[in-house]
Design brief:
- By secondary structure, the chain is of the alpha+beta class.
- The chain has a domain of about 260 residues: Distorted Sandwich (Beta-galactosidase, Chain A, domain 5).
- About 30% of the residues lie in helices and about 25% in strands.
- The protein is built from 18 helices and 35 strands.
- It has a 9-stranded antiparallel β-sheet, with helices on one face. Strands 16-30-31-35-32-33 form a 6-stranded mixed β-sheet.
- Strand 11 and strand 12 form a beta hairpin.
- The longest helix has 21 residues.
- The N and C termini lie far apart (about 60 Å).
- It holds the Pfam family Glyco_hydro_92.
Length: about 725
């Protein structure tokens, strides 16, 4: 009876696999060049992400993979997709036919048959030419599956590399480790302590579906602090071997519990369940478009749902940002929080298409603050990297509260307040906040707060505005006024002569010499800006005060002129490492500070210019080729921008609870909203009506959209 039920389930899921929206998704888009997309197998917001690694270091391989790389080192089980710094890559496995390796082998990599390589949501496959094996990968939320199909039966080998990881720098990442092998049960368990982008520990269990026939430890290399095990298996007349891998931030018992929670689930059922899970989420937006447009759209939507990753164990335990074990609020704890990127479009998109996740995102942010004293900036497996600037968690929280999500508002407000006023003991020098200088001068003087002073002043503004908004909603008028005033600090750095934000010292003197098109970055040529130049940061205040920004430029006509100049003034000698990538004039779509700027035409006297620029960005910087994303996907932010652009509206002020209208780039779309409601989008034209009522192009409210109905563009 069990076999019959399993067969029926597999057949039913197989039908979904054949007909579902996953057929439109190409996980290879963005894997060639600077997109840094990971093509492996995972489920939405999953903890594990098995995928091939072509190299273990270098900016190009921060996700482990490059489409044109000729060899595969093996298949590790945790990854971050679309990020610019390497980490994770835990527990690499590499299979081989026969007894090809010994403990003295130094190179376990293999060429692979590119024509055999396949990827779709929840499944990746490739044939290793040198090693005589086809590798298939799939996953559940907490368990990675690897299946090896060998060219012939008999004895086979699998390398289990605990030293491997995707490196931020050049040195060995592991500080110490432990492991145990249970040959009869076909299990390897262990814990690896590593110091890379973050300092963390990973406990794991690898369970094979056959006993281990022999084992050896590969000769260590200089600096190795974790073993590489060479395991042998006797397959008899069979030609397949399967491995399941579970990890935990807590301990080996947690990894084992994560594995045991899925029971006897087989590879094929797991793969079909992953496909069905992806189809359920992708179907929350159904578009009317040609096949190429569907491929572009659904591949982007897929990438937005890869992260953040729920890293809590099945029992809700997780290792928090200080390294101690905590109980995750509500049993979920999200990481791979690339907040400086994702607050702009990814998190607003989540409020529309995965609203059930939003309270968990907010509770994670607040739990982090309760451990660290401040809200997160950028986290890896729950640990803080202190990467990027500003306070990007604040608009994520304010957006959720503005849209009426059920979160602990008082705890959220206190977390926002502490983050915006208190020092950060133990944080690296670059991550300290210079509140005293901001309060004393009304901006960050570059001689008192050296490095990125203009960018930090501008970015603190959207955090202050978010705090003021939440305080106002909660009736804390005095607090709201205090932070609303501080949110206007950008005005003190606005240079009328160049119409840009310009550095100023503590004596009120402008930065000299000054060229507004010269970009700076703390990683290359430190200055007043963060991976950008003065033009690219000048529009940052419009993230929270577009009307004030418009008036400073002389009203709608002045804003229109400024935007026209912005999109036509060239960048001399563009450098992608300074954020100067995917350029239209000064607009740099390859880096996030520019992402809202084309949408600001809606506040000007020439909104149609914005529609044309958005369409140009889509046409020039996105495609369905492997190099179809120009610039890091940044944990889905580049893809979320594309999803909104194709639907015809965008959260240009991401904490406001409103969207700015553009023009749809699809014939029509239906969004499946909470409680079974639907929102249907259709048409093109200058006048937009929601359920028959005209909508202002700068104030499409989330609350109105959430009721569903028809959003129609026309005349």
């Amino acid at each position: 009876m069990r076999t019959t039920l399993a067969a029926l389930l597999l057949a039913a899921l197989g039908g979904a696999h054949a007909q579902g929206l996953t057929r439109h998704v190409d996980p290879f888009i963005g894997t060639d060049g600077t997109g840094h997309v990971t093509p492996g197998a995972t489920v939405p917001f999953g903890m594990v992400f098995p995928s091939p690694d072509n190299a273990d270091r270098g900016w190009s391989f921060s996700g482990g993979y490059q489409y044109r790389a000729p060899r595969i080192l093996g298949f590790s089980n945790t990854h971050m997709s679309g990020v610019g710094i390497g980490d994770l890559g835990d527990v690499l496995l590499q299979p081989a036919q026969g007894q090809r390796w010994t403990a003295q082998t130094t190179d376990f990599s293999s060429a692979y048959d590119k024509a055999s390589e396949r990827a779709r949501p929840g499944h990746y496959a490739v044939t290793l030419k040198d090693l005589g094996v086809r590798v298939d990968l799939t996953a559940t939320e907490r368990v990675a599956f690897q299946r090896y199909t060998f060219a012939r039966p008999g004895r086979v080998q699998v390398l289990v590399d605990m030293q491997h990881g995707l490196l931020f720098g050049d040195g060995p990442r592991v500080t110490h480790s432990q492991h145990a092998v249970d040959a009869a049960r076909g299990e390897v368990t262990g814990t690896v302590h590593a110091k890379n982008w973050v300092e963390r520990q990973t406990s794991f269990i690898v369970r094979f579906n056959r006993p281990i026939a022999a084992q050896a430890v590969v000769a260590p290399r200089e600096g190795d602090k974790a073993p590489r095990l060479l395991l042998a298996f006797d397959l008899g007349q069979a030609q397949q071997l399967e491995a399941r891998v579970a990890v935990s931030t807590v301990d080996e018992a947690g990894a084992r519990a994560n594995l045991d929670a899925i029971g006897p689930l087989g590879f094929d059922i797991a793969r079909q369940q992953a496909d069905a899970t992806w189809n359920r989420l992708l179907s929350r937006i159904q578009i009317d478009a040609d096949a190429g447009t569907k491929r572009l759209f659904y591949s982007a939507l897929y990438r937005t749902l890869l992260h953040p990753s729920n890293v809590a164990d099945v029992d809700g335990r997780v290792r928090g940002p200080q390294g101690g074990v905590i109980q995750a609020p509500g049993g979920v704890y999200y990481s791979t929080l690339s907040l400086w990127d994702t607050f702009r479009a990814s998190h607003p998109l989540y409020t529309l298409i995965v609203p059930e996740r939003v309270p968990g995102f907010v509770s994670t942010l607040v739990a982090h603050q309760q451990q660290m004293g401040y809200l997160p900036l950028w986290t890896v497996m729950g640990r803080e990297t202190h990467t990027m600037i500003g306070n990007p968690a604040l608009p994520v929280i304010a957006d959720a509260i503005a849209k009426g999500f059920a979160v602990d508002r008082e705890a959220a407000l206190q977390a926002m307040l502490a983050t915006s006023t208190q020092d950060r003991p133990g944080a690296p020098a670059w991550a300290q906040r210079s509140w005293q200088w901001l309060d004393q001068y009304g901006y960050l003087p570059f001689d008192k707060a050296p490095g990125e002073a203009v960018s930090k002043t501008a970015e603190y503004g959207y955090g202050d505005a978010a705090l003021a908004q939440v305080a106002r909603l909660m009736g804390r008028s005095e607090l709201a006024e205090r932070f609303a005033r501080r949110a206007g600090s950008w005005r003190n750095l606005f240079d009328e002569g160049t119409q840009t934000l310009r550095g100023k010292d503590s004596q009120g003197r402008w930065r000299e010499p000054f060229d507004p098109v010269v970009a700076t970055s703390p990683m290359n040529n430190p200055g007043d800006y963060t991976e950008a130049n003065a033009y690219q940061y000048t529009a940052t205040p419009a993230l929270h005060d577009p009307e004030g920004f418009r008036e400073r430029l002389g009203g709608p006509e002045g804003l229109g002129r400024w935007l026209d100049r912005f999109f036509t003034l060239p960048v001399p000698n563009p450098d992608k490492h300074l954020g100067q990538e995917a350029l239209i004039g000064q607009y740099a779509h390859g880096n996030e500070p520019s992402h809202h700027i084309a949408w600001l035409y809606a506040f000007s006297d020439r909104p149609e210019q914005g529609h044309a620029r958005v369409a140009e960005v889509v046409r020039r910087f996105y495609s369905t080729r492997p190099d179809g994303i120009v610039g890091n996907d940044d944990a889905g932010q580049m893809s979320a921008w594309l999803v909104f652009a194709m639907l015809g509206f965008y959260p240009a002020q991401p904490a406001s609870g409103h969207y700015v209208l553009g023009q749809p780039l699809v014939r029509g779309a239906t969004l499946q909203l909470a409680d079974g409601r639907q929102l249907r989008l259709s048409g093109r034209g200058p006048v937009v009506r929601l359920n028959g009522q005209a909508v202002a192009p700068t104030a499409l409210s989330h609350a109105a959209l959430s009721h569903g109905g028809k959003l129609v563009w026309g005349h």
